[in-house]
Amino acid sequence: MGRLAVQNSLSRVLPLRTAVSSSAGLASAAINFLAAVEVAEYAGGQSAWLAILVAGVLIVFAGANFSELNGLFPSAAAIRVWIRRGVNDQFSLASSFVYMLTVVFVIAADAFVLGHTFSRAVPTIPALLWIVALLGLVTWSNSRGIKVAGIIQDSNAFVLLGTLMVFSVLVIVAAPHLGQFHYFSLGHNWFEAVALGIFIFVGFEWVTPLAEEFQDFRAIPQGMFIALGLIAIAFGLFSLALTVAFPDAGVLAHSFVPQLLVGLKALGPLGFWWMVFVTLTTAMTTFNGGLLSASRFVYALARERALPAWFSRLNKRLVPQNALMALAITSLVLAVLVYWSGQYLFLINAGAGVESLMYALSSVLVMSLRRREPQRRRPFHVIGYPVVPGIVGLLFLGLGIEALLTPTGPSGFPWGMVFFLAIIVAVSIYIRWMLPKVRQKRASRLA
Question: For residue 209, how far is the Cα from the chain centroid?
């Protein structure tokens, strides 16, 4: 086996604080700064914070769904297991692959913002070099074991959210004529603003694939709800600071680094470099948290023979090294393509759309499993069953479709929907023609 561990199981060492930081990690992406500008445009000025707050309240109900499902089947395979037992195996496979790819989208989009941030702050160093260096550092630290990755996640996530809150409050307090702003005025595109506000929280539930590595899997629901509150406060305050510094958010629409412009205008050079630091921490939490969770999900899919056995191998520190490297390389390639093309908005829309549809599906799974397996123990129960899950499912279904159909670029074409459909086609091809060969090959080896 060489460097591979004899034990083919993960290590249960993670505490509650890492449940919070991992849940907040993928959701606290640098691309959120660009998403906040888009939300402000649709919301109509200073009420962007309200759209993010409404999106956060809706996300809490989705979090309740994931909490009940995680309590039923705490597994690294997570949503793969839930959909298989709640719907069927084929739909579970397709949904799992599409869902898994959203992590790569977010990492690529975050790398795009990171590259432009550092090319603006330190123009002598190529932007792509920053992306390669940080992705390489995070991949290496992840390979050192779950404890090392957990410490990196904890330190970066809490520093990020805390400093962003302090920065935003200082910007708001320093702004003149605060009483003249319209904090509760709803724009004509309020529904679109809430739909895009969902993207601010995208990925909070990706802590669930780490269920087999927590000391107590019941820490996951607690961590998710704490993280959602911190994200809502931090990015709600930032959206308010953004619209206070720039009452017409449209002037930031074509900037790849709106957070730096807000910092520079509101607090001068201090604000500029403060936001450079914050952007660095967002990259670390997103890269680290995304690779940490997604590698476990890929490992679990391979363990269940949905992917080649190569992805299920663990190194001597009980890390799915092959899955980790494959995700890191894929993320890097897509990040480079996005950076060169400058096309990132469709990733925001596609990510928000896919996640919203998954949140709608989580309501369906809660209701389906209540009927199919009523006797199974549930450490966590959603409130208001079946009315609340039903309403939440319908709302997220509408928000997901709205996000996918949101126009991007000068042409006003919904490229997010095109991208989503292309992924479905690619996944369907894999399941229909390639997966049977993978399973046949593994079966012949076992025989």
Answer: 13
User: For the chain, what are the domain ranges?
Assistant: 16-446
Q: For residue 6, how many other CB atoms are within 10 A of its CB?
A: 7
Three-state secondary structure readout of 328-347: HHHHHHHHHHHHHHCCCHHH
CB atoms within 10 A of CB 253: 14
Cα separation, 167 vs 204, whole angstroms: 23
CB 25 within 8 A of CB 209: no
* Residue 343 vs residues 40, 82, 115, 333: alpha-carbon distances, Å: 20, 34, 14, 14
d(CA 194, CA 396): 11
Which tokens hold the place of 301?
């899919």
Q: What is the pLDDT of residues 132-143, one digit of tens each?
A: 999 999 999 999
Upstream peptide bond of 386 is cis (omega within 30 degrees of 0): yes
**CB 181 within 8 Å of CB 46:** yes
User: Residue 221 corresponds to which amino acid?
Assistant: P
Residue written as token pair 């996944």: 427
Q: What's the rounded Cα separation, in Å, for the pair 148 and 205?
A: 21
Residue type, 76: A
> Above 90 in pLDDT, residue 447?
no
Do 342 and 169 meet the contact criterion of CB atoms below 8 Å apart?
A: no
Q: What is the pLDDT of residues 365-412, one digit of tens each?
A: 999 999 999 999 999 999 999 999 999 999 999 888 988 998 877 778
CA distances from 167 to 31, 182, 349, 438, 445 (A): 18, 21, 27, 51, 57
Task: Report the C-alpha dihedral over residues 201, 202, 205, 210, rounded to 10 degrees.
Answer: -120
Identify the DSSP state of 310: G
Flag whether pLDDT at 169 surpasses 50: yes
CB 178 within 8 Å of CB 46 = no
Task: Report the top-level CATH class of 16-446.
Answer: mainly alpha
